[in-house]
């Protein structure tokens, strides 16, 4: 199995709060990987370590075979939690900015994604609704030809019918698996079909992981599994 992220005994605390404890995982590459778990379980903290935005207190982490940090991040497209970036641009302006500054940004792919997500390219970003801006942020990441895409809650703010449409189309589009896509989301019911593998986090630990098919065969749907785990069942 090719591995995109390798963590060995990783621990991260913020003051008295433990965000991650004893994380030892190998996240497979060339897959769509769901990082699931309740609020505060450590998903965003793990992503921030992958990007090198925070350092672990102890343990080792490698991403695409290297230590995380600025010299690795040209290979990663990252959509952070609560991101709002392109305020004074139009959509086309954001795409131009992407071409100038984002490694691997493919404007024709961005245009195609904008048509498909029904985003008007002349629109100013500061006039967008939350859901339109969330779609633009998703496009800015998905249009990049980089080996790793990390999406932290990418569907938040997108209304249910649009979200379902976007996720269905993503399921159709990300079949080639040239890239690895890590997605954290609470929209498990809708997103379940996207995932090849899933890592369930709870209280800063990875409590269960594996190929989505295997987990489903053993435990039922992901929604049920997350429900059980969030209530202390650990899915085992
Ligand atoms: N910068 C920080 N300062 C203090 N505590 C933090 C910080 N970042 C994360 N934490 C704490 O670490 C724990 C894990 O937070 P994290 O944001 O990683 O969870 P999450 O699984 O992404 O949650 P959510 O689903 O709500 O986005 C929480 O208890 C949180 O309060």
From TrEMBL:
GO terms for molecular function: ATP binding; ATP hydrolysis activity. It comes from Marininema mesophilum. Pfam families: ABC_tran. This is ABC-2 type transport system ATP-binding protein. Residues 5-228 form the ABC transporter domain. Keywords: ATP-binding, Nucleotide-binding. CDD domains: ABC_DR_subfamily_A. InterPro entries: AAA+_ATPase (IPR003593), ABC_transporter-like_ATP-bd (IPR003439), P-loop_NTPase (IPR027417). It comes from the Bacteria.
């Amino acid at each position: 199995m090719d591995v995109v992220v390798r963590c060995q005994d990783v621990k991260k605390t913020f003051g008295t709060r433990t965000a991650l404890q004893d994380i030892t995982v190998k996240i497979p590459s060339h897959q769509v990987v769901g990082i699931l778990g309740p609020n505060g379980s450590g998903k965003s903290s793990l992503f921030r370590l992958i990007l090198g935005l925070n350092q672990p207190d102890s343990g080792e982490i490698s991403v695409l075979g290297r230590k995380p940090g600025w010299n690795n991040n040209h290979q990663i497209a990252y959509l952070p939690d609560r991101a709002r970036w392109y305020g004074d641009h139009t959509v086309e302006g954001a795409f131009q900015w992407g071409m100038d500054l984002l490694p691997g940004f493919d404007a024709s792919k961005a245009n195609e994604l904008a048509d498909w997500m029904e985003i008007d390219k002349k629109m100013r970003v500061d006039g967008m609704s939350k859901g339109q801006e969330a779609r633009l942020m998703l496009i800015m990441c998905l249009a990049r030809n980089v080996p790793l895409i990390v999406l932290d809650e990418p569907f938040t703010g997108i209304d249910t019918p649009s979200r379902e449409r976007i996720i269905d189309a993503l399921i159709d589009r990300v079949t080639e698996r040239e890239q690895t896509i890590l997605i954290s989301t609470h929209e498990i019911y809708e997103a379940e079909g996207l995932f090849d593998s899933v890592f369930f986090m709870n209280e800063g630990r990875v409590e269960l992981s594996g190929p989505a098919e295997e987990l489903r065969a053993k435990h039922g749907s992901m929604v049920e599994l997350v429900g059980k785990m969030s209530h202390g069942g650990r899915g085992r």
